[in-house]
Structure formats: structure tokens, C-alpha cells
Amino acid sequence: MLKKAPFFSLLAFSILGQAQTVLQESAPYTQEHQQLVTALIQSLTPKVETPAVILPDGWENWNTVENYTFGKDRGSLPMIADLEALHPFFRDKISQLIAICKAKGIELALVETYRTHAKQNEYKSMGKKYTRSGGGHSKHQYGLAVDVVPIVDSVAQWDDTKLWKKVGAVGEQLGLRWGGRWRNPYDPGHFEWTGGLSSYHLSNGLLPYLPKSYNNPCLEEELATLNEGWQSWEVEQATIARKPLASAKTN
Ligand SMILES: [Zn+2]
């Protein structure tokens, strides 16, 4: 009976392993039948999708930092903490800041670079010690500010005033504005540079004036790519912020 209608009999055994066993153990089948069953087995095997190739510099790969990574409550939305997310001119300055501090024996960790509107609004909702600026008014939102923290023996040093002064001095020598000079809030991990522009100018789309000595033939392309990355993160975090479980304030 099996021999008369092998296809339909085997279909009854179509749980893959069983079909395979029958195929291997049933010598009398013709090659044609075997090919038919092999094709049937293949058609029932789930196809594995090849994962999409992600470029190393893609915004999806920007390094992020989760809340409490450096021992502080920084809200539920992850922080973007990648140098790639910064304006190219400012990025070079921060690379220098990190390198010079390292040469002085101070290890700096990046806590946050670019910040989305959703993230800025989350800080705003957390109170004045976090920020006084709402969405659109922080230099972080233009890739022109960073928050760093010195690390000693794997522990973030938020309260070491002496250490902060050393870091601040390096930043100021590089022409950066240092939040350690501020009182409301005192923000020693914050460095920014705007090329003379205010938040008002930046929010109206003006680009910072770069020193004549700065020579970057790919600046326009870099800024265009950067802008795409920023917009993608804006969408990403705005979507997360709208979900009730991930929202900044649930009470
Ligand atoms: Zn900051």
C-alpha cells in the first residue's frame, strides 16, 4: 500500500524527523520519489532570514548608556553616549579632551552626547537639578554638548571637586564652555561649544561658525548623515516616551 501511494502516505508522516527516517529506511523507493519527499521536507523547513547588514557608523549602532550606569538617576530613556553623534568639529574637541585627560591620568567616561527632545523633556520633568531647559533649548540637542564623568577604579566620581577642576581646566583650554562654572545647576560634567550661537539661533537652524583653521572637506556630507541619525533617534525615543510603561513620570 505504501508503495502504491508513497507521497500521500508520507504526507501523513510529515512531521519532519519522521519523514526523514522513512526516507532513509525505505529502500524500495525510486530516486524520483526520494526527490519528491526531499522537496516536501525542504518546503516545510522554516526559512532563516539573512540579517540585514548594519554599517558600523549607523545611528542604530551609536553607543547608549542605561539609567544608573554611572550611579545616578538619569531617567528611563537611554542616553546616547557616542562621539559619532556629535557635530564633527565639537567631536574632535571632545576626543582631545578625553585624550589629554587620559595623558594626565584621568579616565573620562561619556555619559551623554546627543540628546533627543523626548530625553530633554524627561529631564525637565525630573526637576531643576537636572535642567532648566525644555525640549529644543539644550546644546545637547544640536550635538554641541557632552556630559562626561571621571572614573576611578571603575567608579564614577561625581563629587570630587578637585578632579572636576582639572577636567574643567583642560576643557576650557580647548575653548569649550564648562558647566562647572555654573551655579544653577552646577554641572561640572557638561562641556559645550556653539561657535557663538545661542539656543535661539540653533533652534532656528543656524549652523555654528567654524574657525577658518578648521579644514574638513566632507563637513556637509557628515552633517547630512548626522542629521539623519539625529532624526531617527528623535522618532525612536519619541515612540518609547509615548508608551506608558517607559514614560518618565508614572505617578
Ligand atoms: Zn549636559
Q: Which outline best applies?
A: elongated
Strand content: 5-15%
* Structural class assignment: alpha+beta
Low-confidence runs:
1-5, 7-16, 246-251
Order of helices and strands: HHHEEHEHEEHEEHH
Q: How many beta-strand elements? A: 7
The CATH C-level name of the largest domain is: Alpha Beta
Instruction: Give the biggest sheet.
Output: 5 strands, antiparallel
- What is the CA–CA distance across the termini? 71 Å
Please give the domain count: 2
Annotated CATH topology of the largest domain:
Muramoyl-pentapeptide Carboxypeptidase, domain 2
Summarize model confidence as the mean pLDDT: 85
* Second rung of CATH, namely the architecture of the largest domain: 2-Layer Sandwich
Radius of gyration: 28 Å
Helix content: 25-40%
Outline of the structure:
The protein is an alpha+beta fold and 251 residues long.
List the helices and strands and how they pair.
Elements: H1 6-12, H2 16-25, H3 31-44, E1 64-65, E2 79-80, H4 88-103, E3 107-112, H5 117-126, E4 145-152, E5 155-156, H6 161-173, E6 177-178, E7 190-192, H7 199-203, H8 219-242
Antiparallel strand pairs: 1-2, 3-4, 4-5, 4-7, 6-7
Bound molecules: zinc ion.
Zinc ion binds at residues 140, 145, 147, 190.
